[in-house]
C-alpha cells in the first residue's frame, strides 16, 4: 500500500491543532467589572425587597426564610449577597455541584439594594467599604504566606483554581474584584471555608487581596502562562508539542525519498 | 535439519548475505532494486554486485538547488551561533527579572535556530545530494586466528611461571590479604550515610501547653476568635515559624463546626467549643492535606484524592490513604488560648518501616 508522505504530517498537525483549539476554548473567560459603594437607606431596602421577591423568593422564600431548594438568608449578611449576585452565581440557573461564575444579572446598584434588604433582616457581615478592600499600603509578602497556607491548596498558588470532589471545584481568581475576594473570605461561599476576622484580620485580608492582584501582573518566565496551573499544562505541552515535534522530525529524517526513476 | 536451516546457510558454507528486514513504521519499505548487493533467496543466490557508488546524484539540477538551500541553512546556523555568543556577552542579566527573561529568550532562540538549522541542513544533504544506495557489510569473525590464540596461551603460561605467582605461595597469599581491607573499606564508609531515624518519625514538637498559632501571622488563637462554623485555618506550634523541619511534621489544620456535628470516632475531649485539630500531613505520602469543603465536611488531599471525613475523626472515605488524619489533643491555657495537651498520640504522616 502506498500513501502520500504528506498524509502523515497532516494527521499529526491536525491532532496538534485540535488539542490547541480545545484548550484555548476551555480556558477562555470574560471579566465583569465592579463599582463603588453607595450607602443604605429605606428606599434602597424597599427596592432590594422588590427585587428579592421577584427574583430570589422562589427558592429562598418570600421572607428569605429558606425552602427545600434554597437555604435561609436571614443572618447571612450583605457580604454573602454581594458575592453571590455580583459574580453572577445567583440567581442560579439550575442546581449544580458548583455554581459557575457568569455575567451578573443585576447591576452594582441593584446588587447593593438586595444586599441592603438581606442585611436589614439582621446580622451577618456587611459589604466592606472601598477603603476596607483597598490594597494601598498592603503587604503582599504576608499575603502570599497566608494565601499559600490557607488558600493555595484549592485555588492554586497564583489563584488559577483547581478541582474538588464530585464535580465541585475551586474557581480561578483571575477575574475576581477585591470586594468579591474579601466577601468570599468573610462568608465562605459554597464549599469554601469561612476565614473570619478573628483568624485572618481585615488588614491581612487586604494583604491577601494585594498578593492575588499582584500575581496577575507578574511576567511568565517561560513566555506563556499555560493557564498557570503548573505541571498539568506544562506536561501536556511537553508531551504533545515537544514529543510531536520530535516525531515529525523523525518522520522527515526517515521518510521515503522521492525515487529517481 | 529442517527447511529453515537450509535458508540460513548455503551449500558452500557461506552465510546468507542479506534478508529483508521487518518494516518499521516511518521508515521506507525494503526495496530490492535499491540494494546493490541484492536479496538472497534459498534456491537462487544472487551474485555479489560490485561495490560502486555513483559519482554524481541522479538529478544534477535538483542537487544543485538543494546544495544552495543546505549552504543557506549552514550559514543561518553559523549566524545563530554567533548570535548566541553575542546575546550571552551583550545582554545584561543583573538588573531585574525582565532582563533575565529577555536574555533567556535570546539565548534559547539563537541556540535552537543554530542546532535546528545545522540538523536540517544535514538531513537535506543526506536526502538530496548523497547517493541513495544501501550497502551491506558482513561482520568479521570475533574469534582470533588459531595461531594467535596459541601464542597468547603460551605467553600467559610462561609469565605465570616466571613471576613466581604459583611457586611462591607467601607472596600470593599476602597480596590477596592486602586487597581485602580495601574491598571492605567502602562498606564501612557506607555507615556514615547517617544514623537511623530512631523514634524521630513517631514524634513532633507538639507538647503540653504549646500554643497553636496561625501560620503566616503567628498569632495565638482564642476559641472566640475562631467562631464561624465552616471556618478552617492552618496552624503551627508557637515559636517554630522558622523551623521548617519541625513544621514539616507538626503542621495542623483546625476546623470549627456547628454544635452537635462532631461525632465518634472524633475524641471530643480533645476538642474545644466544636473546634477540632487534625494533622495537615496526609497519611498516604505526606502531602499537605487542607482542601476542606465546608458543605460536605470532606478534607481532600490534592495529590492522590484521599478524602477524610472531618467531623468523624478524619476517617478515610476515599482514596489511597489507609489511616485517619491524627487528631491533636487540644485544650486552652489559663489565658484562654488554644494549646496542645500533648504530642500526637499516633505518628503523623505516611506509614513507614516498622511503624507497626
Outline the structure in words.
The complex is a heterodimer of chains A (261) and B (356). Chain A contains ten helices and two strands, in the order αααααααββααα. Chain A has 261 residues and is mostly helical. Helix content of chain A is 49%, strand content 2%. Chain A has a two-stranded antiparallel sheet. Chain A folds into two domains: 39-127, Cytochrome Bc1 Complex, Chain D, domain 2 (Orthogonal Bundle); 130-218 and 225-235, Cytochrome Bc1 Complex, Chain D, domain 2, CATH 1.10.760.10. The longest helix of chain A has 24 residues, at 231-254. Chain A starts with a helix and ends in a 7-residue tail after the last helix. Chain B is α+β, with helices and mostly antiparallel strands and 356 residues long. Chain B has six helices and ten strands. Chain B has helices at 3-8, 60-90, 97-129, 146-163, 169-190, 244-250, and strands at 212-214, 232-237, 252-256, 275-279, 291-293, 298-300, 307-309, 315-318, 330-332, 338-340. In chain B, helix 2 (60-90) runs antiparallel to helix 3 (97-129). The longest helix of chain B is centred in the first third of the chain and has 33 residues, at 97-129. At the A-B interface, helix 6 and helix 10 of A face helix 3, strand 2 and strand 5 of B.
